[in-house]
Amino acid sequence: MFTSSGSGGAVSQAPATRNGSGRAPSTTVAIEVSNVSKRFRKHSEPAKTLKERVLTLRKSTVSEFHALQDVDFNVQVGETFGILGHNGSGKSTLLKCIAGTIRPSAGIVRVRGRLSALLELGAGFHPDLTGRENIFLNGSILGFSKEHIESIFDEIVDFSGLDEFIDTQVKHYSSGMYARLGFAVAVNLEPDVLLIDEVLAVGDEAFQRKCIERVRGFQAAGRTICLVTHAPDMVRFLCDRAVVLDHGRLIHVGDVNDAVTIYRRSLAAQGHEVPPDDQDMLDKIATSGPASPVRLVRTWVEPPAGGVAYRPGDRVVIGIEFEAEPGMTVRARMAVHTHDGVQMVNVSSYDIAGADIKADAPVNQARITIEDLPFTDGHYLVTVVLQQPDETREYDRSDQSATFDVNSGGPVLGRVALRFGLESGPVGVA
Amino acid sequence: MTALTNAELPPLLENGTRPPGFFARARDIWAYRDLLGNLVRRELKVKYKNSVLGFVWTLLNPLLYLVIFTIVFSVILKNPTPRYGLLLLSGLLCFNLFSVGLTAATTSITANGPLVQKVWFPREILPLAAIGANLITFFFQMTILLVGLALFRQAPEWSMLWLLPPALLLTLLIGAGLGLMLSALNVYFRDVQHFLELGLLTWFWLTPVVYPFSLVARALNGKFGDGAERLAMLNPMIPIITAFQRVLYNPTNFPVDQQEQFTEMIHRSNLWYVENLGISAIFALIFVWGGYKVFSRLEGNLGEEL
After folding, report:
1. Is it the case that residue A220 has pLDDT exceeding 60?
2. Which of A46, A99, A133 sits opposite B45 (nearest CB)?
3. CB-based contact (8 Å) between B3 and chain A?
4. pLDDT at B110 over 70
């Protein structure tokens, strides 16, 4: 993906993560989350005045709501750790427990060293103060001394790229400038543990690239990062390990690719539309070239005729919709992976039809069919990449956003569904 | 970026929990004194940002009191109190430090909700910063009173000046103690801030700021016998306010025939003032201890109750 984009047949590799990057894993725990549960009292509308409390006393509708249930994992020093989860999965609650702003109902969270949180837009800023004043305010909120902030003040300003505006009230900043300042403060303070909550998605591409670089520097310096997001590709791109939360329970700890798959499945299980292309943002960072003339609008797998899963031997239709300038020729490459990252097939439109796809209109459709599906039971992920016909340039892609399931209805082990025959008898009789 | 080596690694600690005990907490707050300073500065800067006169507004308020009350009471109502405006300011500035500070402290946590939910720091910092900002305001406003005294060539009672630092300290302690208590309670019941408004109004009129202390003393002594004026000290602001008035307004400046309203204040010994402040100090300690108890009981859930 990021490491390989642009090269021919980019999808021929399973997505690369930092797992294989060879950094020696540390064995010292930086964040210890042991058996953490968090219950909230659930009022239909929280009673905030005495009167309301008294009035609701009788028809006490207080029910308990488990935001986190028995969550247990460790983050090692120097690790970049992802927390994935759908909205309401408890990931923000978990982050708050780590940050210490709320206390778990049961269990314990311990953190080694100084922690700095990349705050949501504006939480640590006062709009009426200047950027300069806010840097000091924000730094001291995060627990750093004036001297320390002074010593890195220039670095912060430099990094934010806001030197012209540093004495302007922050309320005149754009949201991007706000985010830049916040990120600059949190990262340059050099905390031992950095918590990042969904904030990398703001700011322009150049700044995002800078942030990612900075996060890399952070990683290289052996510092610990905890990243909370619902963008799986961010996790795949940055993290060493990840957990997936689903309704307050940990459904996965460990491998990043598995985390992404399991997360997608948990989204799908809830009937949420799986985000079609989380890749967008990061791809833009990775392939900083001229704007792509082709855009993959969506990728889908046509549902099986009878039920939720295909059977071996069925015909599977994979559809794409893409925008292109009429008259262009586009090569589509499709790969199918199992949920554990094994590539089952990787084929281009040229391989299939001996020709590439011609864009006749601004918005076009194409269908790739797999006849006599030879896969056994499993959950399969479809990746489509649109390329220049000579495969020297990648226009757009959708990573594993379309999926399908196969159910053979039989006890076959292995990856492929073949048709078998069996004959037997004494040797030499036939 | 400096890399960490294993030797420098700090210990694994539970985040957001506090060391038990009053003094350990105080040390915790001390460690965050830069934040306290920055928050005080923020309060002050933000208050008058974008106004043309800026900080001058802080001074205009007492100046206006001085002028208006002098005109209304001395000129129109023909109140016999000499230089009534100066008497009023001598007590009012201190009472305002208490009441405005306490009001700001009470709403400080709810007003900083997003911050409290996102970052952990000793939450006491917020009400304390609110009071700190009002202390700075108090010092600035004091200059108006001092200029007023200078203009009328009215000298403070220099020999009793030493009463003021403890009196000021007690004002801060009472404000901080109640502020800690109410700021945490206000997160659970927003009624607290509205209730406080009424409470402070009552408190103000139960404290001799607008009227001289002698009225209170005479009423009490007349009803319960001599010495009953001590009962007034059950309002812990009275010893403080009377000390301020005695020292700054200093009724001994005036000819004897104008001192009639202040006989109690003038003829009480230094010891009387010290004893009264002692009573205030007992209240202050109770409030501070209560504030610490209530706050430490409630602080754990502040982040989620907001």
Report:
1. yes
2. A133
3. yes
4. yes
Containing structural domain, residue B162? 29-299
Q: How far is A271 from chain B (nearest CA, A)?
A: 29
Number of domains in chain B: 1
| B279 in any annotated domain | yes
Minimal CA separation from B119 to chain A, in Å: 6
Residue range A327-338: mean pLDDT, rounded: 88
Enumerate domains of chain A plus CATH numbers.
26-43+65-269 (3.40.50.300), 289-406 (2.70.50.60)
Query: Which tokens in the block code for residue A258?
Result: 């598995």
CA B156 to chain centroid, in Å, comes to 21
Q: Is A223 on the interface with B (CB under 8 A)?
A: yes
Task: With CB atoms and an 8 Å threshold, state whether A49 touches B191.
Answer: yes
Facing A99 at nearest CB: one of B11, B42, B118: B118
B148 located within any domain: yes
The answer, as to whether pTM is greater than 0.90, is no
Residue A10 has pLDDT above 60, yes or no: no
Which of A112-116, A314-318, A336-340, B79-83 has the least mean pLDDT?
A336-340
